[in-house]
Structures are given as structure tokens and as C-alpha cells.
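PROTEIN–LIGAND DATA SHEET

This sheet pairs a single protein chain with one bound small molecule, zinc ion, given as SMILES. Inputs appear in the order they were entered. The predicted three-dimensional arrangement of chain and ligand is reported afterwards as a C-alpha cell string under its own label.
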Amino acid sequence: MSHMEEQKFKDSAPEKDHWKTKAPYKVHDKQDDFHVRYEASCHCGKVKYQLSREEPLDSKLCHCTTCQTQHAAPFQWAAIFHKDDINFTHGHHDLEWYDPTSKSIAHQLPCKVRCSFCHSPIMDEGRNMILLFPSLIHFKNDQEKANFKPRLHMFYNQRVMDIPDGLPKWTGINEGEDSHLIEDSPPELVKEMERKRVEAQNKKVESGENK
Ligand SMILES: [Zn+2]
Ligand SMILES: [Zn+2]
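PREDICTION REPORTED AS:
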């Protein structure tokens, strides 16, 4: 490496680590007006975080084979939050990353985040959102737990067991283009989705005729 290249490398290093000081790893202080509603920790307790939002944006059970392998469980329970809703009390410390797409342990989004000591899965970090695993949260009462109640199943056709709970069950990501409602999904929702599908189809035909 030449002298100039070396200098360039040094200059770019802090830039490369910039994400460590930004949400979701930014440590919030009192001035941030971060209202603590929930507290959570990994199995060994090295990783601790707080949440400021009362209800997740969504709560899902994922049956995809990646989740089965990554969690060594029949399915995964994830609650969606904004990156600003979380406060890791030690920031990025004691965390490790894994990108299942490239099988790399570099911090590349979207990736899995775990405790670097006990390896408890903490969350999936997406490009814009985080998918937290609520099993780590210390719920103080039934209402708090109810706030996180799963609202749907996704990748249900990859399941290892049936969950006849009457919740919507999607073959892929919910409401994705190639995703369909199956099994014991609520009949009204199935009808509504079918209506939307026909409507979209008709629109396509109409705009085709107008050309
Ligand atoms: Zn741990
Ligand atoms: Zn999954």
C-alpha cells in the first residue's frame, strides 16, 4: 500500500464505521426526550435495550426456512419498529452481525443482529426498519404483552406445523405481489384481497385498451 493509499484508507475508516453512532445503535440521552416504555435484555444480560413506542408498527410470525435455521425454532416472532424507537444502552457494543444473503458477518443491511457473547437473536436490521424479537422484552402486565400480539403469519407454506389461530396466513411476505392468503385466514380478508386483485386486473385491462 502506497503512502497516499494508506492515508486514503485511514480517512475512509471513520466514514465506514459511521453507522455505529446512528440509529438504531445511537445511544439516547436525557436530551433526546426518549420515553422508556419497555426494557429488554438478551439471555446473558450483556445486551440491554429500551423502547419508546407503545405498540409495534406490526407484529408477525415468520415461517420461512431462514428464520427456522437462524432461530433453531419452528417459526420466528418479530415486531416492527422505527430505528429511532430503540435505545441500546451500550450502543453497538456486545453485538454481532450476520447477513444471511451473502453469509457474511459484516454489517450489511438487511442483517441479523445477535449478542456477541450468548448469541441470542436480538433483531433483524432492515434498511429502514428494525424487526425486534419480543421474547426478550420484560413485559410488566398482560396489556403490554397484548400490544405485541402477532397479527399475521408469513411464508406459511414453509411451515413445519399448523397454527389454527384464525389470523391471516400469507404464502410469502404479507400483501406481496406473489403472496396469497391460505389455510384458515379470515374469510372477509380473503374476499377483500380477491376483490382488490380483480380490481387491479380490470385496471390493467382498461389501461391496455386505452392505448
Ligand atoms: Zn447475551
Ligand atoms: Zn423468515
